[in-house]
Structure formats: structure tokens, C-alpha cells
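Deliverable D4.2, example record:
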Amino acid sequence: MTGLAAKEAAYLYVSSRSQNTTYRYVAPGIYSRYAYAYYLGASQSRDIAITPEGNIWVATDWTSMPMRLYDPDNQLLDYIDSSLLPGARGVTIDDEGYLWVSDIIGDLIYRIDLTEGIQGSGQTVAPCLEASSNPFEGQVTITAIGLGGPSTICIYDISGSLVAADSFNGSFVFGDSEEVRQGVYFARVTGGNGEVSVLKLTAI
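Output generated by the structure prediction step:
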């Protein structure tokens, strides 16, 4: 367990790094465990903070997105990238709505104003694809965040031939078949809102 937060003195929220999930317990007494939110994309969660609306800010090990905001339906709502916040470890929200984050890279504590651009901003998050290992041998799991609605994945070899295609619900396992040989592949995921992300893969 790596993160701890509370809301309205009735619930205790605990994040599990190994299970990539935040659990909600009834307090006091700490009982009735409920899986509150699962973080798609293997976030390597550190600490968490609960917003008044019940959404969760998660401090992660991702160098590109050290802070990410999820709702209880496991959807990514917003994020803070590394150009604004190099690293994140501890996080909390004060009574005025400011997000406080400790940065382990710069050895600093940041106060972040969340009053604009989070709720109802209408902005979409840029899609982001990751591979469980790259280069990979045998098979690889492709995960994504920031894709809206029903999504599809197509995988092409270096010549542009389609190797695999399927619906995409946040993760897809590619490999362990006769069609997958050593070489370079490109995974192309298209989200329901038309957003597209491409990931280069190397099979060894």
C-alpha cells in the first residue's frame, strides 16, 4: 500500500501499488473493502488525494505524466505533465482546493491551483500508448490512456501489411503466433473521438 486519503470522515481510501487500484473502506472501524478505481496503463501509483467530487489524483512513476486524475469509472480526466512537475511522490488537497505535491526530483513541494481547466474544460487528453516491454520477445501487452469511447487497434509490420486488428478496451496482447517474427511493428489505436496514437514495437 502506497497512498492514503480520506473523505467526509466516512471513508478511508488506500492505494495499492502492486494491484494498481484504490480501495475504499468504511470508517471508523476500517471494514467493507470496495475496489474504488483501477488505474489503466500501469501507473505505478505512489500517493493519492480525493477531490470533493470523488475523483482521485494519483502520483505516479510515469516520467511523462507524474500526476493523473481519474474518476471512479477508471476514466482519465486530466493530468499534469513533466514540463510543469518533474516528479511526484506525496500528494494532498487542502481546504481551499489547492493540490500540494512533493517533487522527489527537484526536492521541492508544489502548490497547484486546480480552480481552472479540470472540471468541464471540454479539453481532451492526448492519447498515450505504452508497451509492457519494448523490445519484446514472445508477446507484449499494449496499454493506452486518453482514448474516448469505443476504440480499435491495428498492428502493421514494417512493410505496412496489417498483422492484427481488434477492438481495444485499454489493453491488447500481441504476439505468440506464427505471424509475429523478429522485426519492427507499429500499433495504431484509434479512439471513439477520432484521436489516434501510434507506438513502434520491436520483436526480438
